Sequence to fold (79 residues):
Amino acid sequence: EDLDRVVPAHIQAQVAQALSCSATGSLVSVKKQLEALIERYQPDEIILSGMIHNHSARVRSFEIAAEALSDLCDHKAAA
Fold:
């Protein structure tokens, strides 16, 4: 079914905005996405949130994010 016929444009815009500040996928993918977000916004802090019902999947998601951020911090410190 055509998404434009089912979901109003303002809802699609909100979803697009929310997803524009997200990082998903493998460690390598998450690391690249976080690096791009950090470069773009230059935040003082990063707050992670995961809307994952399965506990072990949620824990794994945060492990991936933590490892990606740790790698980025190590890379920045070495530079």
User: Anything to note?
Assistant: Residues 23-78 form one domain.
